[in-house]
Specification:
The protein has eight helices and four strands; from the N terminus they run E-H-H-E-H-H-H-H-H-H-E-E. By secondary structure, it is mostly helical. The chain has a two-stranded parallel ribbon. The protein is elongated and about 85 Å long.
Amino acid sequence: MTLFPRAPKNLPLDFYNPEWFNDLQPNVRDLVADTHSVAFLPKSSEMLQGTRHPDEKLSDKRFSEKYWAQNTTKYDLTHLIEDNQDDSDSGNEDSNDSSYCGEEVDLSDTSGDDDEDVEEQEDDIAFIDDNNLDGVSDDDGAYTDNNKMLIDEDDLKFANEWV
């Protein structure tokens, strides 16, 4: 029995036992371990000496770049290779690029086709204008009159006025 009911997450790959890690489902492996970094020197005896190993001063990124290939030989990382092949086989690089925002449009070089839209909007505004009641039926007016909320200035209370 272990003291830890769950494995700690996002630790460098070589922190985990290779047999245990390889028994995990491929989709869980990425969730458990940081498969792109390593933390230990390939020979553990070098770490346990009284003196400090010169590579222990490297940044995490440089340390991982230097020792990743040596430390990950016992781990089944085929799911990483398959993911990379799927990405490269897609053929259309724009669909995988999250920074792609569509085609660029030069707004200073337009043909003037959009000017018609402005005229149509002006016609719509004239129709909606409160002073222009040509297109409004009598039923709409009765509805508006029946639902007005007025302030009774004598009592400063709200009252509904029905026509």
